[in-house]
Amino acid sequence: MIETEYPAWKVKCGIHDDGTYILSTESCVSKNGEQTYTFNNAFSITNDDGVGYSTAKAYSIRYTAGVTYTIHIPSDLQVTEAKLYGYCNWDDADAYMQMWNNATYTADDYFFPRTKNDKAQWVTHVIDHAAHPVTDELAFRLEGKQACIIITLTCMRRSTAVENMQGGNQPSLTDKVLRNGQLLIVRGDKTYDALGRQITDNLK
């Protein structure tokens, strides 16, 4: 039951595990042109200029220079690392990450080389957020030229209900607890059994 029904229940309730979450054309469920980029892992990306979703080479997504994009992070996750794998699809100038998570950078920091002889020049940049994990929203902005990027976010669960219980506070996020030999799932102030049936409104 734990191996089969519990994972299905987690998907239904939007519960996420530690690990990597890829934002690419392969995981995106939006159609070309839609202004919200929705992914099958509960992440989404919006922008401040009405730019529509557009595909590029090798599962990358096109991001327009001069537009602020916002990655919306599921409420039970925090980002500890970001990997940007991409290229600039113009041949007359480079693209670069001018702003990432409200920190600004120069054209020499996180840049994506221009296309040469019709060949994309792929690069990888890794941004470490382990010291200050990012929650809720992560904004970024390119300058120079348009870049085509696959974003991979390494995430950890936010503080758990078990930790909150040990501190004497009511849990605020989702976690598994074992009580009287029964596996229970705590989400906010509600408790469910492993099949998703609510047991009580208040965890005492």
Keywords:
204 residues, mainly beta, five-stranded antiparallel β-sheet, 16 strands, 41% strand
Protein model, in words:
7% of the residues lie in helices and 41% in strands. A hairpin with a 5-residue loop joins strand 2 and strand 3. By secondary structure, it is mostly beta strands. It starts with a helix and ends with a strand.
β-sheet strand percentage: 35-45%
Helix share of residues? Answer: under 10%
Dominant shape: elongated
Q: How many runs of DSSP E, i.e. beta strands?
A: 16
Number of helices, counting only DSSP H or I runs of 4 residues or more: 2
Q: Helices and strands: which structural class? A: mainly beta
End-to-end CA span: 26 Å
Instruction: Report the biggest beta sheet as strand number plus sense, adding barrel if it closes.
Output: 7 strands, antiparallel
Note poorly predicted spans: 160-172
Mean pLDDT: 85
Q: Specify Rg, calculated over alpha carbons.
A: 20 Å
Order of helices and strands: HEEEEEEEEEEEEHEEEE
Compile the SSE list and pairings.
Blueprint: H1 5-13, E1 19-23, E2 37-38, E3 44-47, E4 61-63, E5 68-72, E6 77-88, E7 95-100, E8 103-104, E9 111-112, E10 123-128, E11 137-143, E12 147-157, H2 161-166, E13 174-179, E14 182-187, E15 190-193, E16 198-200
Antiparallel strand pairs: 1-12, 2-3, 3-5, 4-12, 5-11, 6-10, 6-12, 7-8, 7-9, 7-11, 13-14, 14-15, 15-16
What does this entry show, briefly?
This protein is mainly beta and 204 residues long. It has two helices and 16 strands.
